[in-house]
User: Fold these one by one.
Assistant:
Number 1:
Amino acid sequence: MRIRENIAALLIFTAFVCAATPTSPSRPLRLAIMDIELTGDLGGPELTPEHEARARMASDRLRAELGRTQLYEIADNARAQETIRRFEAIQYLHQCNGCELDIARALGAEQVLVAWVHRVSNLILALNYEIRRTPSGTVVARNSFSFRGDNDPAWMHAVDSLVEDLRERGIR
């Protein structure tokens, strides 16, 4: 009788451990990240080089920091650069009615993130983002982060907030 009780206890324990132990971790989703765009009051053409450099720096930081979360495998946009430039020449990618999905498909990405900073003034800005599933276009996540100051530290803080939001919510 004692042997049966021990075997039953061992089986229950084994079942509990197996249920509590995660199976092999799922691979990260492949995410295409479009460069951050700037909309709204652009402050005049004399600010264009500064804004372009800041948007590039913020986009690079977004890719690097999201890659570090290991939630995503970040797609390299280099293969689709010509297509991206062609679309950007005529419209914002976050408003292009699915062109970002075509770019993501070309990159073999399962999801695509578009982000844009809306500049109300030199003091008031908002970083917005949206992630869509590539096959369907279904929105997976979207959010907006208000921030103050059209300067490098403020933009980088907004990017860090976006990354932290996705990490905390575990959005995939």
Number 2:
Amino acid sequence: MLQEFIAYLATLADLPVVQALLAGAASLVLEDPVTLACGLLVAGGSMSPWAAALGLTVGLAVGDLGLYMLGRYPGRMLSKRILERPRFEKSRQWLSRNLITAVLTARCIPGMRFPTYVAAGLARAPVWKFALVAVGASALWTLTILYLTVRLGAAVGEYLGPWRWVAGVGLVVLAAGVQICISRRRRDLGGE
């Protein structure tokens, strides 16, 4: 089964558009593990670097804009009582003044994108400004992680030989586990 899956993935090496679409769609679920996986595929020569960079950047940007819209439209209708409080107005003003810093910081700290981007939507931060900063932050983050993974993956892959795929899958699974644990911990702390 694993050999068949790897053989199927190898056929995608000639289809960079499909690679980009798959990377973008998968990044909507767990972006950091998908970025690591794409980096390892690029390092192994199984994925086009341009497909990885473009697919991941677009996928992350779409996800970020989706979170913003979640706060901007449905969130606004659901929380009228919260939005009318003076404390919210102070928060809205702070976020408007510090939108760039908030978005860049949230991009780099696990668990902070959801509350920050939804809050930006609730605060009605200018969509064009949010989109510009979010896309820029997504591109910077993606290209940095992708570059580091490709460089390290290529260097380590030579030493691991045939075990490089096992190590790569282990790394991606570890990253996914860490991301899931952080999400659960944040949810548990928020529920108390």
Number 3:
Amino acid sequence: QVEVRGTVSSQFTSALLFLAPLLPDGLTIQVMEGLRSPDAVRTTLEVLAQAGIRVEADWERLLFQVPGGQRYRPGRFTVNGDYPGAMAVLAAAALVPGEVTITGLLPDAQGERSALEALVAMGAELIVESDRIKIKGGRPLRGIVFDGDRAIDAVLSLATVAAFAEGDSVFTRVGHLRFKESDRLGDFAAEMRRAGLELFPRGEELIVKGRSGSIPGGATLSAHQDHRLIMAFTAVGLRAERGLVIDGAEHVGKSYPGFFADLRRLGATIIEEAECGEEPPSV
């Protein structure tokens, strides 16, 4: 039996779950002090089940028992669409007039699916049919209060939309964003303020003071080597009169290598460093 603290990330638990069935005697995993982003572990259990792995999950006690000596069943698997990446596109689409449809988003255990509810609560017009989501952008938006732990990898995208909504928004239970690829609370809020927006981390919360209209733009923002920050800053650039420069934008390739190409196909103007000589990439 092993104990793992779940207050910083669910990824440690998922890593142990993937390893456990290959051990001769299996593994009992006790998650201590609560579990952040539990839906990510539910996704892990879905994938394990598809591969023929048995896990006994006691969610009340946060205890996972995995029999040993198991083998992963080979086969052909269809990987579901990625809700956090899709949310970055939906956030951008919500901020400008137009209509965008994203396909391949099946109803599954990904917690970021609940971010769709947040977009609707803000006033975005969404049509969800089977595995496709259509959004009609440019609608008036309003602030919300949202439990960010339900959709932690979509919080930055939602906060970007909230920054251009009427009224304030509060994202609760997001303190563990400080321990991602960057400090996704402090770094994100500081760069957004550099762009002319008002975001402030406060303990376990992120406070967003919304504004309507555009921002002057022209600022250079650091990506902090974080793909989520890059996608959020790109959406902000769509509402900047003089655009934005994102320093380190190549790190978007960690999770969404085609992000800039997809936004270009949707009509965004994006100039990359290779295309403009010594100038940094801009949106």
Number 4:
Amino acid sequence: MTSHNATILVGYDGSPDADSALQWAAETSVLEGHDVRAVIVDDGTSPTDGPPHQDPPSEMVAKVEAVLTGAGASGVAERHGRDEGDVESILLQEATDADMLVVGGRAHGRVGAVLGSLSQHLLGHAECPVVVVRGAVGSEADRIVVGVDGSEESIAALRFACRRASVTEEPVVALHAWNAGHVQLDHRGQLPDEVGARSVKAAAVLDESVAGVQLDYPAVTIEEELVAMPPAEALVEASANASLVVTGSRGRGALAGLLLGSVSHHVVRLGQCPVAVVR
């Protein structure tokens, strides 16, 4: 495999979400000085064998080149045959030396089985951050939201967000959500002391997580946000007013044993903006 430097890899199949993913990747490449490599897997079927409006590989290549040119980005479209492996394997192999892998949230035809279902294997095993783009990317949101829980993966996610914010000049919202669960008031009608103690502990985790990263990105504004609700719900809710949500692939506690944590999986499925999953 050829070595590639400073590259954004895009899994492309001509679907609307793949178009959005390609556009996001092209704009990001201009911001961050990366090249784009769009991978198109040709399974050898004719256009009439696929779903309606499925473009043949040659037309996909032309679409990729047009988007890159329009965005002022440098890059190439690469066609891969199915004899090289399934789509998932090809993307994982090509992503080995990429800076990030960008895919659409839903897909059709040749890569629909992988990108449409957002394979946990792809998200859990890619050696680089994976960004999932679903639908048209809005331009009004101007903040990057990061789920922070003190784990190594969440610190890596916060660093990823700050690197992007350093070129987009957006504020970064470090969000720590802690689940208070079912809470009963005491005989005085007040919250029990243990809830307050858990809140203080959660705030300490957030402060400590942000402090180290802020030193490395002094020019980036990092806003801390502490919320008492399930983390997955908090991040999905925050995604409605974000340009990007970033989460670690796994979190603390029981989630650490999963290749793709339930929080990350939930946000990828339901997030209302592009979602980056960072290992």
